[in-house]
Structure formats: C-alpha cells, structure tokens
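Bug #2210: token dump truncated for Hydrolase 1, exosortase A system-associated?
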Amino acid sequence: MPEERAIAFSCRGAWLYGILSLPQAAARPSSRGVLIVVGGPQYRAGSHRQFTLLARDLAHAGIPAMRFDYRGMGDSEGDLQNFENVDDDLRAAIDRFVAEVPGLSEIVLWGLCDGASAAAMYAPQDPRVAGLVLLNPWVRTEEGAARATIKHYYKDRLFDARLWKKIGSGQFDVKDSVRSLWDNVGKAFGPKLDAGTAASRDGAPLPERMQGALTRFGGRVLVVLSGADLTAQEFAALSHRSGPWQRLLGTPRFTRQQIDKADHTFSRRPWQDQVSSWTRDWLRSW
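Reproduced locally. Full output below:
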C-alpha cells in the first residue's frame, strides 16, 4: 500500500493542510510528482472522493501525489480565496511537496473546473511546473455559456421524449421556455455587454487570459473533457473558432481526451478510473 502522510504548511500567515500519497519505500519513485488543485467549493477529497482515489492510484503506480485545501477551504485557515487569487497557495504547496519528496524535480498540476483554470494561470510563473492536466477547464463568459446552452442543451431537449410528454399533457411552460431561448440567443449572438463582468483586473476576459497563460507556459498539457457538461463544451467550442485558441490547442504539446457521457465531476467510478488511467499513461509518455 502507498504511504499517506498528513502535512501542514504556512501561506501568508495561515496554516494549510494536505495529504501526501507516496509510493512504497521499496519502489523507485518518479522524479515527477502530481499536485492536485482543488476547484470550486471543494476540499482535498474532491467530489465523489475523486482526488483521494486519484492520488492513491498515482502513488501505487510510483508517482508521488499531493492534495491540499486552499486558504479558507476544508481544514485550512485564512479567508476564502477566489480561484484567480491562489498563486501563493500553489507556490507554498509546491515548496512543501518538493521538500517532502527527495528527488522530486518536476511538478504536474492537475485540476478540475476552476482548479484547472487556476493551475493554467499559475504554471508559467514557476519553472518547476512541467505539465498540466486540465479537466473541464472553466472559461466562462456570458456569451460562451449561452452558445454552449443553445448548441447542446436545446438540441438534446428536442429529442427528449419527456419534453414532448410534458407538452402533450399541458405541463410545459412554452412562453417561459421561448423567453429563455430568446435570452440566450441575445447573449450568444447579440451585442457583447458582458466584457466588464467577465474581465479581470487587467480588463481581459477569462478565455483570453487563459490562452495567454497556456501560450507562455510552453509545457505539455493533457485536456480531459466531459461530453455531458456545458462547462466542458464551452471550452471545447474555443477550439472550433479560428484564431489563437485553435492554433494553441492544435500544437503537438496538447493532448485531448473526452468521455462522452460523463458529467462535470466524473461522478461514476468507471469515469474516474478512465481519467486516472489517462493521467498515468500521459505522465509516462514524456
């Protein structure tokens, strides 16, 4: 069984807590370790214990892994941080990870949703980061969400027998649905009014900042998308548009995988196992 070790480290005056999953002492550990970056209002176990299971699986395969709570989440101290303000947390976690595992020279950041976005934007700042695994990266804008909803949600609803059964029984609010569709069409194809809400301190929308960070990073990236998730489809749509995103995602250093029926958090064990298997294979491929 892999060894698991509880750790604590400081970040701007707050104590952060995490778990190291380490290969067996007899095994020759990899010089490449995986730091799991928690996304959304989650803590180090992850939804459906996905991060716990992933860390143990990687350690069993000889790859050290670490998961931890940001400031303000789980057991960690401090004020709750937005995913765009966790650079100090990630740097402190990597410092401790490297100190705890002799021979560790490369770090791969592995994140889901806005954890993936946090990892992508941190990566070019730290030469120790050699790779990224990004699951359903968060690139939300009002326009992008509306386009994904129109393309995937409404299309699926048209072929849903339950919808037509509701319409036939008079239990479906047609006016409300048409109003919602029209609202999404306006957001997707109308004048762009959301630049201010989607922009950061420097004024650029999130997708542009993500694209810039991934371009500056220059390392290898594994992208894993869920087929039944609008967040994933919003990211996938970026690769279908001509321009910087299409050129970036088309470079050989990017590898892309998709599980067609998976939801946002890969809630079923076979989906989690598939993601873990892809992660292991990708880590060994370079």
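Output looks complete on our side. The radius of gyration is 20 Å. Marking as cannot-reproduce; reopen if the truncation happens again.
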